[in-house]
Design brief:
With 149 residues, this protein is of the alpha+beta class. It contains three helices and five strands, in the order E-E-H-E-H-E-E-H. The chain has helices spanning 28-42, 57-65, 118-148; strands at 2-7, 14-19, 47-53, 69-78, 83-93. A five-stranded mixed β-sheet has the order 1-2-3-5-4. Strand 4 and strand 5 form a beta hairpin.
C-alpha cells in the first residue's frame, strides 16, 4: 500500500514516502507524514527535510498540509533514469510553537539531533518499517470502516 522512511544519516534528517496508486487521495500519505513527525520529535529531532519531484503536486500538497515550507528547487541526477529531474526541497522545524508537534526549545541551541539520541535513532531506523506498516494498516482499517458504514 505504501511506505514512509526517515533517513537520519543526513545533516537534516530526511523524510521519504510513497503510496500505491489505488490508495491515492485517501489521506494515507498525510497520516504517515504526521506519524513520522511525532516519532522524529520524540527522538529529539528538531528539523526534518523532504524532497519531491517538481511535477508531483500531490506530494507537494501533502508536505505543505503537514507544515513543511518550500525551500527551493534544484536539478538532481538520477542514474536509474540516466538523466536529471527537478526536485523541490521542503523543511520543517519540529520545535515551532504553532506546530501540532511542538517541542520545547531546550537550551536555546539549535541541534538537528540531540547527541544523546544517537543510539535511539539507530534503533528507530531498524524498527521504522514495522512502525510505519502499523500506521498504514491502522489508517487503512479506519478508511475501510468509514467507507462501509
Amino acid at each position: 500500500m505504501g511506505a514512509v522512511a526517515l533517513n537520519t544519516a543526513e545533516a537534516v534528517p530526511e523524510l521519504g514516502y510513497w503510496v500505491g496508486r489505488p490508495y491515492w487521495s485517501c489521506g494515507y500519505a498525510t497520516e504517515a507524514v504526521h506519524a513520522i513527525q511525532r516519532i522524529a520529535a520524540d527522538c529529539g529531532i528538531t528539523r526534518l527535510a523532504a524532497e519531491t519531484f517538481a511535477q508531483n503536486q500531490a506530494s507537494q500538497r501533502v508536505l505543505l498540509k503537514t507544515g513543511f515550507r518550500h525551500q527551493g528547487s534544484v536539478a538532481r541526477d538520477f542514474p536509474a533514469i540516466q538523466g536529471s529531474n527537478s526536485v523541490c526541497r521542503y523543511e520543517k522545524d519540529l520545535r515551532c510553537s504553532h506546530s501540532l508537534f511542538a517541542r520545547a526549545a531546550g537550551t536555546g541551541e539549535n541541534p538537528t539531533i540531540e547527541p544523546k539520541k544517537t543510539a535511539e535513532l539507530a534503533a528507530l531506523n531498524r524498527s521504522l518499517a514495522v512502525d510505519t506498516a502499523g500506521v498504514f494498516t491502522a489508517t487503512a482499517g479506519l478508511h475501510q470502516a468509514l467507507n462501509t458504514e
